Amino acid sequence: MISVPDGLIGLLVGAAGTWGFMRLVAARSREAKRDDREEPRPDERFDRLVETLPLGAFVLDRRGFIRSVNPAAEALFHIDASRATGRALIEAVPSIDLERHVASALLGRGSSRNVMIASSERERTFLVSAYMLDDDHVLVLALDQTPLVALESVRREFISNVSHELRTPLSAIRLMVETVTFSEGDADVQAMFLPKVLHEVDRMVQLVEDLLELARSESGRLPLRLEILSLGDVAASVIETFAQRAQSLGITLSIARDDGADVVADHDRITQILVNLIDNALRHTPAAGDVTVSIEREADEAILRVRDTGSGIPYNDLPHIFERFYVVERSRARERSGTGLGLSIAKQLVELHGGTIGAESDLGEGSVFICRFPLAVSEIGPES
User: Fold this and answer.
1) C-alpha closest to that of 2 among 42, 32, 49
2) Which end of the chain is more exposed for a tag (fewer CB within 10 A), N or C?
3) Please, are residues 59 and 4 in contact by the beta-carbon 8 Å criterion?
């Protein structure tokens, strides 16, 4: 019989980390008070509590063999309790780290720590607590921390990227301001450095605005003023704003459009998508190159394509280009003056409109970005 040490229920509550479990214990207590004659034995009550835990639980003997497995552990580790019982824990959950953690608990050094456990699908991180129940049994509790670990990794990477993007222009601004300060009013020095200071400040302002825009779109708090729009008309208007820049770069910017491609969308947000995609294409296309925007209908969708004859995207980088701050050629990123957020923002805005975005590219042969939007209902006819 397993003897439950004092304070173990508190340990289980702390490991579960949920009010649901506390309410369950309280409910069990109330039931027991209503009818003392039906109160289960301590070991039966313990077994019931372990069964209902929202985290995986194993009870092992001193050899490390499984005495019992709760349903949560079956689901977490994809095991069958009937087959696992009586076998060594390492057979059911192949992990040297977990085995060592249990061995430490058997020596009286119970503790909680993160343990990496690989499966056929991926590597996962579990917060594992292992403690002696009595002289002959060990309780092992496992909580899947993989989503939290992934979020923490994203948070750290995001902070690192933002810090880098802000530190670089700030360092440049400091250096240039110091130069102007010590130039004792030299007009040539001021003419050389002050415009550059303004440019770096503008880059930081744009970065902050892009971060705010991305945060709003990812959180779903970005309001959309929906109306029926001609995707071709919006694209033509945006191209006009880029005409002078394209000409100065020696790039041919053109449009091919289907006037029947109407969508229900927010004019400003569709404009922003086009601005981000065309700006990206111009920055990666050399002089004498081409950037073509095409609008057409396919079945019940309006298709927007932005094609360039630029440097292209390496195959290994292609799946990551819509990630925040992802840069294919980091050494040349600052030359192109992007914030690393344009494609991420475009993706979020396209998806807010119920659409999809993707890219195709061959290194050295250019790229094409493809956005698909649902056609406005009035534009979906029998010919579609």
Assistant:
1) 42
2) N
3) no
Q: What is the pLDDT of residues 112-169, one digit of tens each?
A: 888 888 766 678 889 999 998 888 888 999 999 888 887 777 677 777 777 777 787 7
Segment holding 268, helix H or strand E = helix 267-283
Architecture of domain 224-384: 2-Layer Sandwich (3.30)
Q: Are 300 and 378 in contact (CB under 8 A)?
A: no
- Structure-token match 């049994």, residue found: 137
Name the residue with higher pLDDT: 361 or 12.
361
pLDDT confidence of residue 334: 45
**Token pair recorded at residue 269:** 């947000």
Tell me how far apart the alpha carbons of residues 319 and 344 are, in angstroms, rounded to a whole number.
Answer: 12
Cα–Cα distance measured from residue 384 to residue 381, given in angstroms and rounded to the nearest whole number = 6
Other CB atoms within 10 Å distance of the CB of residue 54: 16
Q: Let me know the angle formed at the C-alpha of 311 by 351 and 172, rounded to the nearest 5 degrees.
A: 85
- The answer to whether the CB of 132 falls within 8 A of the CB of 110 is yes
Domain boundaries, the chain: 8-144, 146-222, 224-384
Q: What is the mean pLDDT of the chain?
A: 82
Architecture of domain 8-144: 2-Layer Sandwich (3.30)
Whether 255 contacts 236, CB under 8 Å: yes
Q: pTM value?
A: 0.58
For the segment 222-235, what is each residue's pLDDT rounded down to a tens digit?
Answer: 888 999 999 999 99
CA 209 to chain CA centroid, Å, is 20
Tell which wins on pLDDT, 52 or 9.
Answer: 52
Looking at residue 306, its pLDDT comes to 97
| Sheet containing 111-118: order of strands | 66-69, 56-61, 137-144, 123-132, 111-118
In whole angstroms, what is the distance from residue 298 CA to residue 316 CA?
29
